[in-house]
Design brief:
783 residues; 9-stranded mixed sheet; 6-stranded mixed sheet; 18% strand; binds adenosine-5'-triphosphate; ATP-binding; chaperone; Hsp90_fam; Histidine kinase/HSP90-like ATPase domain-containing protein; HATPase_dom
Length: 783
């Protein structure tokens, strides 16, 4: 091959380069060239470098490449999984197209992936007969980052430097080639275009040239990786075999490795060889002749020889795992399939493989990942690609927006339908009645899977609950049809079994089983953490009496109780809200309460007036034990946690009248008739000394509100009143003021006005300083 001719650049040279390439393709590298594949020659690659049109990578791509190289250097091997997965996607696309366009497969009907390692040239070549790329696609797909959300992803990963696991959760795609290669050449041929060559050395640009050889691929894409010195292991057949088994076993197209193997063969023994081994003494006796003849007949006519042959070796199974019988598949196979299918870095938490029969027939495997995606249940999360749809083993789409309800956005898997037509259009797919039935069945099966897990393996279910509990709660709120089943999957921390941090999880059914005789309500407390909920005065009393209280600590719980209302005929009752009933209140207790109400009437009157701005009901309660009083939300009011959420809502939208209305609801103030403080207050009121109580009552009310889970209304007022009360307690004059000794600041320093150049210089220094890292905080005036 003439390098000079190939480099000179006119049309005649291109055709000579093409002939040269074809010739070289018959003897490339150390192995015989695989039949049916042609490779780029070095001079043709030189040609691309010198004559190809140059393009800049999008900045995002350069960032992505750097990130991949810096964070995945320890798991370089994933490049092969990524490239095979791209090849498989491209094969899926052409297979799908061929469903409606018979000519799409043309002269390249074999759908396959091949791997060829060339030790001499130090290249690994991955070829597929997939859909290929047009010039436009090539330039866009391998030069920009088309996927929305990638910028966001880049920011997340960058903020968690070297978080290999995080980056592993996203397919890193084609750019992972640069983990092992310092130069990558891509040859591609799409039915709609000519064959193109793309080339890059991972710097800021890439080149594209029309392939001077014409169409050598038929259709598809060939990726040539020029391996870095430390990536030579990927030239070893064994290593490649092992990687395909580990990461790409379940790719549904055949993956062939061009490999050597030793074969043994029986070959006839040559004539001379035979002579050497046969005694031929012509002088011998007849009798000996006969023996010799017998020996000669018995002597082997063939021998075993071993020889090395090079051939395509099929490295993967391809029979889709979901079409096999569940009892023949090991857990390991399910897990490996999951990893290759989702590109997760760890095994799933659980899975369900089933065949639906009846109205519609389909196979499905559903998986629950161990950890949800970082954007799980966040605004903007997109889970439309979580379920892949196949029709009779043919991949149809992985874009099924609306297939899974939001609460199931963590579920991953596939559905392979026998009933949908193969040429179903992706656009109208969602409206297809069969899809609607499949959807329903999948949701039902997912619920079954969770119920089975909860019933079979409580520990694992709680592991699930810790990660996805909010999703189940969301399901109860949003999925009316499945609400009943989902309620059974709810778990809450409870005062049963110790409370506090060790508070065990319980289901509502278990709670109901433990309910006391005549107990009419399921008691719960809400708040930010279990410690404060567990020590609130309401909970305290209930626990002291032997009742169980559930702790609702998630923001979503506030919405949940609005929808849940009751379970098994028992109303859910916030213990910090008006309306708690025990069911054992007898006539005697009722009379005692009525008497106490009358006894405390003067104090109740006084409190209603003093706290009238915030409280509309003051009542006596025997529900308090050691606490003198408690603040509750009225029946239509909201808990402290909800109040804070609403406050934020109002801060963001001043016109949110509904939220404002809730916030304006007055509270219920309960007093403990057996508490000495309350009795003392009653005495003072009866003696007409209310003014002595004014500040203390206010302080008591605010402090009790805090203990009951609400926030203090006016912190500075509260602090002032606390001071008043403390002064009283210490006998310090209420009007005495602190001696203030104000030290005046030094005089203004005289400075001359800065020249413009000085100011510019200063600005530049500040900008430079900002770029130098977070530690460099010295010298900032504010600090
Ligand atoms: N072998 C191939 N044949 C055809 N097109 C390809 C091939 N490899 C890559 N592409 C195209 O280039 C695009 C970008 O590939 P890349 O691997 O970077 O991302 P991706 O495959 O879209 O996503 P992922 O991150 O899941 O791999 C692909 O979407 C596809 O359109």
């Amino acid at each position: 091959v003439s390098g000079a001719a190939a480099n000179s650049g006119d049309a005649a040279d291109l055709s000579s380069a093409a002939t040269a390439a074809k010739a070289a393709s018959t003897s490339a590298g150390n192995l015989p060239t695989p039949p049916g594949l042609s490779f780029l020659t070095e001079d043709l690659e030189d040609k691309v470098r010198s004559a190809g049109e140059s393009f800049q990578f999008e900045t995002e791509v350069t960032k992505m490449m750097k990130l991949i190289i810096n964070s995945l250097y320890k798991t370089k091997e994933i490049f092969l999984r990524e490239l095979i997965s791209n090849a498989s996607d491209a094969l899926d696309k052409i297979r799908f197209r061929a469903l409606t366009d018979k000519k799409a497969l043309g002269d390249t009907p074999d759908l396959k992936i091949t791997l060829v390692a060339d030790k001499e040239r130090n290249t690994l070549t991955i070829t597929d007969s997939g859909v290929g790329m047009t010039f436009k696609e090539l330039k866009a797909n391998l030069g920009t980052i088309a996927k929305s959300g990638t910028a966001e992803f880049l920011a997340t990963v960058e903020s968690q430097k070297n978080n290999t696991n995080l980056i592993g959760q996203f397919g890193v795609g084609f750019y992972s080639s640069f983990l092992v290669a310092d130069r990558v050449t891509v040859v591609t041929k799409n039915n709609e275009d000519k064959q193109w060559i793309w080339e890059s050395t991972s710097e800021s640009n890439f080149r594209i040239i029309e392939d001077p050889r014409g169409n050598t691929l038929g259709r598809g894409t060939q990726i040539v990786l020029h391996l870095k010195p430390d990536a030579r292991e990927y030239l070893e057949e064994n290593r490649l075999r092992e990687l395909v088994h580990r990461h790409s076993e379940f790719v549904s197209f055949p993956i062939y490795l061009w490999a050597t193997k030793t074969e043994t063969e029986e070959v006839p023994i040559e004539a001379e060889e035979e002579e050497q081994t046969t005694p031929a003494d012509e002088e011998s006796e007849d009798i000996e002749d006969i023996t010799d003849k017998a020996e000669k007949d018995a002597a082997p006519k063939t021998k075993t020889v071993t020889k090395t042959v090079t051939d395509w070796e099929l490295t993967n199974q391809q029979k889709p795992i979901w079409t096999r019988r569940a009892k023949d598949i090991t857990e390991r196979e399910y897990n490996e399939f999951y990893i290759s299918f989702t590109k997760d870095y760890q095994d799933p938490l659980t899975y369900n493989h089933f065949r639906a029969e009846g109205e519609v027939e389909f196979n499905s495997i559903l998986y629950i990942p161990k950890k949800p995606s970082p954007s799980f249940l966040q605004p903007g999360d997109d889970w439309s690609k979580n379920i892949r749809l196949f029709v009779r083993r043919v991949f149809i789409t992985d874009d099924l927006a609306g297939f899974l309800p939001r609460w199931l956005s963590f579920l991953k898997g596939l559905v392979d339908s026998d009933d949908l037509p193969l040429n179903v259009s992706r656009e109208t797919l969602q409206q297809h009645s069969i899809i609607k039935v499949i959807k329903k069945r999948v949701v039902a099966k997912a619920i079954d899977m969770l119920r089975a897990l909860a019933g079979k393996d409580e520990k694992k279910y709680l592991e699930f609950w810790e990660q996805y509990g909010a999703a189940i709660k969301l399901g109860v709120i949003e999925d009316q049809a499945n609400k009943k089943k989902l309620v059974k999957l709810l778990r809450f921390r409870s005062s049963h079994g110790g409370g506090g941090k060790s508070g065990l999880f319980t289901s509502l059914d278990e709670y109901v089983l433990r309910m006391r005789k005549a107990q009419p309500q399921i008691y719960f407390m809400s708040g930010e953490n279990i410690e404060t909920m567990g020590t609130s005065p309401f909970v305290e009393k209930l626990i002291a009496r032997g009742y169980e209280v559930l702790y609702f600590g998630d923001a979503i719980d506030e919405y949940l109780v609005n929808v849940l209302v009751e379970h098994d005929g028992k109303r859910l009752q916030h213990v910090g809200k008006s309306g708690v009933k025990y069911g054992d209140e007898d006539e005697a207790a009722k009379t005692a309460l009525a008497e106490a109400e009358t006894k405390f009437e003067p104090l109740r009157d006084y409190l209603r007036t003093r706290l009238g701005e915030w409280v509309d009901t003051v009542r006596v309660s025997y529900q308090l034990t050691t606490s003198p009083c408690a603040v509750l939300a009225g029946e239509h009011g909201v808990s402290g946690a909800m109040e804070r959420m609403l406050q934020q809502q109002v801060a963001g939208n001043k016109d949110d009248f509904r939220a404002k209305m809730y916030l304006q609801q007055k509270k219920v103030f309960e007093i403990n008739p057996d508490h000495p403080l309350i009795l003392g207050m009653l005495e003072k009121v009866k003696a007409g000394k209310q003014e002595l109580l004014d500040d203390s009552v206010y302080v008591l009310f605010e402090a009790t509100s805090i203990a009951s889970g609400f926030s203090v209304r006016n912190a500075s007022d509260f602090a002032k009143k606390v001071e008043v009360v403390v002064r009283e307690r210490l006998g310090v004059d209420a009007k005495a003021e602190a001696t203030v000794n104000v030290v005046p600041a030094p005089d203004v320093e005289k400075r001359s006005k800065k020249s413009e150049t000085e100011e510019e210089e200063e600005k530049e220094n500040v900008v430079e300083g900002e770029g130098e890292g977070e530690d460099e905080i010295d010298g900032h005036d504010e600090l």
